[in-house]
Each structure stands twice: as C-alpha cells, then as structure tokens.
Amino acid sequence: MSTTMATVPVPHAAVLDDAVAAKIRASFDKQGVMTHWGAQLTHLADGFCEISLPFYDKVNQQLGYFHGGVIGAIADSAGGYAGYTRISPDQELVTAEYKLNILAPGKGDTLVGRGQVVKSGRTLIVATAELFAVDHGKWTLCALMQQTLFVLAPGSATAAGTAR
C-alpha cells in the first residue's frame, strides 16, 4: 500500500444503534483536550471511529508539522472510541497502553485518525489506528498506532476528583 493517496475510503462497517452513537458522541464532547483543540468525531460505525483535527498554530511542533503528542492523542481517541462501539451501554473503558509509529511528517491542513477494533473481549479490546495528514486533498499516512483498552465493570468508573 502506498503511503500517499488522493483519498482514503472509510471501511464498510455495520451502522451503530442511535443510542450507542449518542453515548459515544456525548463522551467525546466531555474530553477537554479534544474540544480544546477543536477535534471532531466525523464517523462512527461498529468497530470504527474517525476523528479529524484542523491544523493551526497551537497543535504544531517547531518545524510547523502536527506535534507528535497531538498525533498520539488523536490516535488514542480514535482507537478508544472504536472500542466504545463494542461495549455495553453501562460500561466504560480506558487505555491500558498504546504504541505509536510516526512514519512521515504530519504536514497538512487536517489530521485524520481512523481507529478500528482488531479483537474485542470481555475485559480487553485491541485496536489500531491509522493517522493521515491531509494536505490540499492529498492523504499521506503519517502514523500507525496499536492499543490495548481495558473494559471497566459497570459502576466502577468515576470522574476524577470524586469519591468512589
């Protein structure tokens, strides 16, 4: 597969139940870093999530590309929300670990992260994400991520700073 493409089609996946999609979108909207940066959840399907982020001067590194930490955060969220499509409505999940390979500079007007579930189990979900720098319609694969997500038991998740 070439790392530079004119466009990259969204994989075909089963459509999500409206209630599941609404829960995921509400969760995404609570993520301070994603909303602060202006990231958008652009596509959801069973086992799949796409997030896009427009380029601006607060998400760059010293050479003017998307910062590696920003690429990692978009990858983590794309894989994580792909995982959310596979858990029950009363469950939550958190990232246990991820590995990011940056393959090319994140140079473009938009960063697109596409997360996909590889395997979902009762307590662990393995996901991957492809990150594309889109520059005037030209898509360049700039990073790959592999991740393990931990499924939390119903009622075990609490917001930071609250008592259990």
TrEMBL record:
Record keywords: Hydrolase
Family: Belongs to the YigI thioesterase family.
Top-level lineage group: Bacteria
Record keyword Protein transport present: no
The protein, known as: Medium/long-chain acyl-CoA thioesterase YigI
Entry-linked Gene3D superfamilies: Hotdog Thioesterase
Domain Thioesterase, first and last residues per copy: 64-138
Gene Ontology MF term list: fatty acyl-CoA hydrolase activity
Entries under InterPro entries matching the protein: HotDog_dom_sf, PAAI_dom, Thioestr_dom
Catalytic activity: a long-chain fatty acyl-CoA + H2O = a long-chain fatty acid + CoA + H(+); a fatty acyl-CoA + H2O = a fatty acid + CoA + H(+); a medium-chain fatty acyl-CoA + H2O = a medium-chain fatty acid + CoA + H(+)
EC number, as in UniProt: 3.1.2.20
Alphabetical list of Pfam families matching this protein: 4HBT
SUPFAM superfamilies, per database record: Thioesterase/thiol ester dehydrase-isomerase
